[in-house]
Write a structure and sequence with these properties.
homotetramer; alpha+beta; 15-stranded mixed sheet; 4-stranded antiparallel sheet; 20 strands; 24% helix; 30% strand; elongated; disordered N terminus
């Protein structure tokens, strides 16, 4: 038997070895307002830049963790393995693409334009040809991406290696913003949070991101990687693109959610289920509302103003996938005549700005 | 300030300390056939017999673990703490009752008639007065329970301390059965499984139970205690009683389910969700059905006969709260003309008899 | 067979059921300075006051968790179960005592004198007769304890139910202190930390405690209960008593240690193991010291002043039961001539006062 | 600033990103008989054959998991990524080597000769040049390895893809064995156990291995990867080579140990610590020996013959890093005169042959 034939047979045999049974986690974050809530990570690397895994690993990880969409964003300008890994800038996408289709992971073609600050590193998403981004002048590279229809986001704006002490908005970023060359910003990268970024996002209408920027194998332990939640009209690449350009995202890391209150508030309430039967609370009696939290998020509530005519708990954690009783005690004669009871809670792990928590109103019919 | 008044104030103060925020787990086992699937444990002890916890602890544990109903079944004949704990046989129920009402745990009044074998130990559930069960003759005690309308079950029929080598059905049990004095049997107790019991249950129309028989604090770690699943018309004490007398239970321990196929089969299928779109499988192509298992049970499937015209996996674990892909590959020209694809799997952790697994048919439209 | 005989046989049989195999955790906190480091909890309740477990449960829990000594400190003045549990104040100790001896848990006889603030609640340890502490006047009760040779500690000085907004030292406490009626104070109770208490302990020479004050079954999950570490000349009741009166304790809760630096510093260094071979660090080279942490504590270090002639990590976590590399880089020509390298780190989870962390010096021979 | 210079600066900056603080697990398996017990894995792949990680990942994983030595054994004949990854057969070793030196992981140069059965796949360890193993005839390849001084082991002898129903020893293997071309065999690979292999190892003096054969990122969850324990005179590559050629290994997977009793027995006893004080057991009394298990292995013991003059537990689990009490009860007058008590236990998770457990004798002085 010739050597070639042996090798062919081996290839057949070895595929058996790889076909191991597996299953996919479910990330329980609800859909809202008629949008699909897609769990996405738009920043990661492979051996085709300075990462240490093959592109298919990124798809397998995303599938196992329950993600909907990823983008492999290998550096254009930094390829330390190029002595051994010889391929152009589109190759990691091409390798990962068939597996992504098979596993129904949306794979967005992307690349990281990797320069010193300013403007720092930018991810170009939804490009058609990464090779054309290899340009000496950074603005030429960004323009090329823009002209390919790319969505451009500023990565880790406060990354200590580039900005040791501060997170600064440079004139260059204003230039990019004014020329349709900057559409989004990372509020969270890997394990770093940039408070300035969420406020810039609000002020300058930039779309917010939380991405893993993972280089080695993903290690999520019992938690979850940083995720960009995309509120899309459909679970398609087009749906994601439209949502990103429309600013409909929230960031999700370490049991914390950040974004616009118009998105966070329905996310909070869609996570919960409780009876809407009237409480009929009266002075001196107590009632319990059992709140079921079907999401993965532990919501941490702190009362922002005392209840009128009743005592409500000053703090309350609505634990993920648990039922938490809310105990209400009538403390005045007025309560028996109140038609609707409103409780105002600040959600300590939901932020609408760097110094602003989401305030939610828990409303219960009383009569 | 007098001593009495101090004590009164302390009582008020100390209740604050006990009011700690908590939350309740959700046991994800679906409702079936229009019945509520209630998670129940009908065998446990307190300091009022030979247990080591106060009756309220049993209610708190049940609430935290997500149970619907329990019965405290203190021994009538064995009360080693009686020097210090001075009360009648109804007292543990009375103490636990207000908290059960408050936390919406159904508390069934019960007691354990505790004799040497035969007939061994029997739990009497739904009794009205446990004190009347204190009789010298065991049959008098059981008759009293029956006449109170009790459901009677034989506990741990193969308990090694009473039956070191065997699990035996005695004439006494036939007598009880024939005189409406025996209605159910424990198939599982604490950490012991009795294969004979499931077969007797099938043969003699006894209702099957899995109970914790817990004496100390319940320790469930990451798992769950042994549970009797009751398929009830309503989540009420009456609903449970009707279901028990009608034999509508399944036993659930260590990721294993046992019961009648008419109950286990819908339990299996109600746990799962997958698309019913036609597969359109053809020779040489492959299709994936993504099966979402929304229950707490990992279902372990083994193919019992090869697919006709297609290859299906020989074994497959449908992991709890995960999505598992079922990969099907067409291997004959006939498959393209097959209107419905049926796959026959044995569920290795679902039993209908001591030596019989539940067989399920996974059906998919193909055209 | 008579009823009595049946019951006797049952008692024999049932003991089998209770004899389940178990094993005991090891709390890895090292001995120091020739003292045994005993892991102790001196505050807990049973059904004999307002707890909900039988006294033996406290011994079993302590054994399973790896503790050396406990004290059951049922309230003298507050016994809500007294209608059913009829016994004097020494009874919980008497019941727990044989099992403690069998399992080699040191059981200190104690009681909680339970009054409104001031002086609040005090635990009396090493008493000889708890019944004599039932006195109308609080000072009479405390004096009785003192005269029995008791060690007296002030429990939860900032407990919100008694001191809603503040933690205050009252004149009454000065009186107790001056009359040998107060020797220690809880710095941590259940899940509350009192910063004032550690500073009072330092200032007034009070012994520091962290206790569980557990009422229901102990639930430690993956962590550990609050512990008072006692540095004793011997693992005996006398050894503990001498250490408490000498102030040789540290408190340990949530991966945090508090105490005198003379005790915390050896605790830190006895937890670690690393080579004492000379580093021979020179300019432009780097050396690694592998530090093995054999304790249960994750030590979190922050550099308090830059290394001289070398770069050392600004922060470093010495993870429990792991080896952590300390990377040192020479950055000046001087370093090659330096005989000893000293690095000054603040240990963020070790406190010597409410606002002072332990500072440790990591010393390495260089030549 | 030129493009080259930008790239250089980026390289500097990006290394910061990779320098994340980490720590290394400790695998607690004791040294025995004056040998170091080295934790090794001699079978794994990278992108340089059909793996999906960069070679440095294998070193990082080994370091984090607490291993001492690994061998990267990329296939000679099967390199599906060769279109993109262009390098010779020594390249994965060369890339991993500097990091291995820095992290003090012993990296053995190896390769997998990958042929159809017989002889199947063989790992060649301690080779000097993998490129020379690329030969059309399998025996030429193996001879080349032998002549480079290689240790040769037969991988996954019962791998289902090659041997669907059986595990067979072929004439070819006898030829290899007789010509110094076969020295070891995998008893365990990835998640498969081959009972035939342990018996062949005993019969034909082959060294036993358990290896991971990992292709993607290593995922050990809370457990450990399959390991070959090497009992070496020194923690050096030479030490390992001498031990392998001398047959001093044991295999360790899923809390199971296999090997020669001369190695397993001291491994068992070196894991344990208990007092050697005389028991002074007499008729009708009971004594407890507290056994501390300082290893990672839960040892599961079953009594193989009744104690003489005493009752000892029929089964006992010595839980890892816990203290387990062994309860002994004197049951005859003779026991008081017995100088030494010997208990014979079978260790259910230690095997010396496919159907033989290690038997250990627990000896205690009695007088």
């Amino acid at each position: 038997m010739g050597f070639k034939k042996v090798v062919f047979l081996l290839a057949v045999l070895l595929t058996f070895q790889l076909a191991e049974a597996q299953s996919r986690r479910i990330i329980a974050i609800p859909d809202i307002n008629g949008y699909k809530t897609l769990k996405c990570d738009f920043h990661m690397h492979t051996v085709f830049s300075d990462g240490t895994v093959w592109p298919t690993v990124r798809v397998e990880e995303a599938w196992a963790e329950g993600l909907d969409a990823i983008s492999i964003t290998d550096h254009i300008e930094y390829r330390p393995h190029s002595k051994d890994v010889v391929a152009d800038h589109n190759r990691s996408f091409e390798i990962a693409s068939p597996l992504a289709r098979q596993l129904d992971i949306l794979l967005v073609r992307g690349a990281e334009i990797t320069r010193s600050m300013p403007p720092g590193h930018l991810n170009a998403l939804f490009i058609s040809n990464a090779n054309l981004l290899e340009r000496e002048d950074v603005n030429d590279a960004i323009k090329e991406a823009r002209d390919q229809g790319a969505f451009l986001l500023w990565n880790h704006p406060g990354w200590k290696a580039q900005q040791p002490d501060t997170t600064l908005w440079f004139e260059e970023h204003t230039y990019l913003l004014n020329n349709n060359m900057l559409h989004g910003i990372e509020v969270y990268n890997a394990s770093e949070y940039y408070p300035e970024a969420i406020d810039w996002a609000n002020e300058k209408k930039l779309t917010m991101f939380a991405n893993s920027d993972v280089h080695g194998p993903m290690d999520v332990n019992d938690g979850h990687r940083p995720l960009t939640l995309v509120f899309a009209k459909s679970r398609t690449e087009g749906g994601i693109k439209e949502a990103l350009f429309s600013g409909r995202t929230a960031v999700y890391f370490n049991n914390t959610l950040m974004g616009k209150s118009a998105l966070l508030e329905p996310l909070f309430f869609s996570s919960l289920k409780y009876s809407d039967a009237p409480l009929r609370l009266t002075n001196g009696t107590s009632k319990v509302v059992n709140i079921t939290n079907n999401s993965d998020v532990d919501y941490e509530l702190v009362l922002v103003q005392p209840g009128v005519g009743l005592d409500a708990p000053e703090s309350l954690t609505l634990k993920a996938h648990h039922v938490t009783p809310l105990n209400l005690n009538g403390n005045s004669e007025e309560i028996a005549k109140t038609g609707e009871i409103n409780l105002y809670y600040s959600v300590k792990n939901m932020f609408t700005a760097s110094d602003e928590n989401l305030i939610v109103t828990l409303s219960f019919k009383n009569l």
